[in-house]
User: Which sequence fits this backbone?
């Protein structure tokens, strides 16, 4: 009996040792995972805005700021990606020329103008994307693209290359864009006659860190 008791005691001790080793490995694994920090291939979403409840009046000959947001804590090696999706309506009675300006800190503000004919029955869909890469305190790369599906009826697909305007622009900056960067999209018309309006469907900003 004493021999059996000794074997049982040894077995229990071995099981206890295994449990302690499992807990140790679990703790090590959790620590390593936590050190990795939050990560996603699309970067951390720092701001997301759903569809606006009301359209913005853009029948102005000076810039109307559709959306603006500050991104803080930007350091060398970070990048910022902004995307705004919406629809635009020109029911002013004549073709209007709209100028779109995606902007980073008033440092990168390329303008793109597009003619939109008047029509009350359908809206034009647009997708604006503008990206910033902060290489250092004296080097930054910026890129923007703007896709506008002119007078697109609801509920139907349309070839992006047909009846559309799709533009790209690239630029560099020697200014210091670390710290806080203001991200915005501005639009103006060449005529102040109503009705010209823009409805935001979504606005998302991502900040991607190199670390």
Assistant:
């Amino acid at each position: 009996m004493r021999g059996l008791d000794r074997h049982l005691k040894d077995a229990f001790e071995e099981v206890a040792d295994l449990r302690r080793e499992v807990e140790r490995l679990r703790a090590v694994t959790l620590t390593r995972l936590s050190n990795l920090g939050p990560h996603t291939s699309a970067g951390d979403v720092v701001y997301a805005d759903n569809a606006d409840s009301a359209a913005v009046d853009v029948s102005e000959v000076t810039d109307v700021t559709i959306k603006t947001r500050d991104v803080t804590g930007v350091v060398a090696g970070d990048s910022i990606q902004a995307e705004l999706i919406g629809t635009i309506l020109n029911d002013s009675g004549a073709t209007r020329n709209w100028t779109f300006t995606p902007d980073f800190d008033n440092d990168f503000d390329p303008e793109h103008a597009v003619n939109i004919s008047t029509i009350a029955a359908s809206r034009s869909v647009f997708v604006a994307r503008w990206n910033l890469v902060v290489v250092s305190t004296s080097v930054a790369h910026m890129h923007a693209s703007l896709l506008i599906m002119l007078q697109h009826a609801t509920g139907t697909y349309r070839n992006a290359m047909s009846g559309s305007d799709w533009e790209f622009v690239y630029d560099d900056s020697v200014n210091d864009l670390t710290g806080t960067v203001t991200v915005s999209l501005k639009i103006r018309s060449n005529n102040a006659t109503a009705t010209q309006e823009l409805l935001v469907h979504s606005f998302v900003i991502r900040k991607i860190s190199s670390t």
